[in-house]
From TrEMBL:
GO terms for molecular function: cysteine-type endopeptidase activity. It comes from the Eukaryota. This is Peptidase C14 caspase domain-containing protein. Keywords: Apoptosis, Hydrolase, Protease, Thiol protease. The keyword Cell division does not apply. InterPro entries: Caspase-like_dom_sf, Pept_C14_caspase.
Amino acid sequence: MFALVIGIDNYASDNIQSLHGSVADARAFKAYLTDTLLTPEDHIMILENAFATRIAIMDGLRRLAADPRIGTGDPVIIFYAGHGSRARVVTNKQSTEATTNVPVILPSDVLGPSRGDNIVQPIPYYVIDALLGDIAQRKGNNVVLVLDSCFSSASKGTHPKSSFVRAVDLPPNFCFHADTEHEHLLQSPFFSLSSYVLLSACSSSGQAWERDGRGVFTFALLDLLCTMSIVELRYSDAIMLLDIDSTFTQSPYCLGRNQGKLLFSLTPPPYEHRFLVPIRTRLMKDSPVEYVLSGGEAHGLAAGDEFEVYPDLDYPHRDGTLAITKLGSFYSVLQPLEKIVPISRNSIAKKAQHGRRELLHIYSRPEDDVRKILLLLEDEDKSMSNIVAVNNANDAHLIISMQQDNVVIVELTTIMAVQLSFQIEVRVEDLAPILLASSNFFSSMKLVSEDDSLTEDVQIELYRLPLDFPAPKPLTLNVGRPLQDRVVLDRGSHYDLRITNQSQHDLYPIVEVFHLNHELQHDILYHPGYGHSVLDCPLQRGHSLSVNFDTFCPPIEEHMAFLKFTFSTRPLDPLYDSQTLRSARRLPEKFEGRWATISKLLISRSPERKTLGEQEYQEK
């Protein structure tokens, strides 16, 4: 593990108010790295106050990218506590008129004298984004940015006298020129959040506060990390479980393609890692009080699913078991199986047993006795209960055949009506992970909702980016085209998906790729951030969202994958706004929302293998 830790209380400019807890936060974070995570001292660069200049911060980020000690996949952490702001930026050096407004962080020497008649500029977030992307490109995308700062107005809101907001308003006439190296990023339609995870003290419109000599966010984050085991803790869980003083209208959030991975790793959590919030409330004003769960059809739940209820996350003994009897889009109604189940303010529910859902069909020859293996596996892992053996190979998704020396051949035959011919050779003792991956892949692919009234006004277009992207020049896109049901792409090219919301709803999209190969790889291209209760909607009505991806480059001539879009009218995280749910006298209307999915088949081929019709379509 390697880290760059920055804390700034004192600024050289008299125009910037001092802070009182940023350095203390930086030292506490460094102590967590060394004392709890046992990170060697020489793996950590720390910059405080006058040492945290613009040059030093930029140089520190570049040194991480170039450090030969950092291996591919090693965790790299950047922590910043200090002021943020927004600044007007000029992209044309011949102009003095600011063309855009960008978030920035403030080094300790900002607004101070620089070479010539210039002053030291703030560091735009898009530059930090580019430097983190460079670290990820060289060292792997196990990169985390912890940001205890904010970019909204410092004059917004009031709090106790000992509290300070970590943002300042720059002088009204201040603007700066984008440097030549990074100017093209202003025109890029996306940040490289595929490269790192952002843990932020607040949303883009929120505020980060400090009180009693510490940052509210950093104090809560370190308190959580020091008191809970992080072995099975996701980045998103860390944000959702923070205990933030309700005095502060501050809502930390998490963003990035790897936000669902386990802390400081690229490891996905167990498939059934999720826990949900159980409550006792009414569905309508005069209806009876019932058990309600903060998850429904959109979360892959099914009638008959059983959940064990615990008084809090760390308590080892359950209070009882509930089973789903009715499903909504974002909630479920349950009944107790044994006795009345007490529900407390901190109760959580963990899935214990699968109910009725679409099954993964497996065929094997009668003499192979694979059915017995399936029964043994189901006894060990209840998540395999949706895998069943069938009597006809034509009805199977997987065909399993026993070979000599305890070897099993697994053949994938069909997924979503697409015929496949992939084979995997494993030993019997390694069959369980293959079947579990197949089951999870199949379940995620089949989690669909057809709501044309929600998706008919969502436009999805595909753009091909320059082959040398990203390049230090203005970004130019080819003419976008509507995404068809079957799309042939150039293997190795860069693409941009442009999603435009012309509906009457603000939408929270998820974009996933399901690779139809022997690994059954499942990638998340885009997922909205996670936040307590205030989450910026990424696809507001009348607006667009861009998602970048590279075509898959396996060492074969052709590769197929499904591109799946999920659109919902509220965040799909079942813990989102959980405090509102826990205190509700009846189910809030927002839990009655809608969701819909769209799936497209992608075929990645080398250009020379395209048919004439496909070539014409691609180049339009």
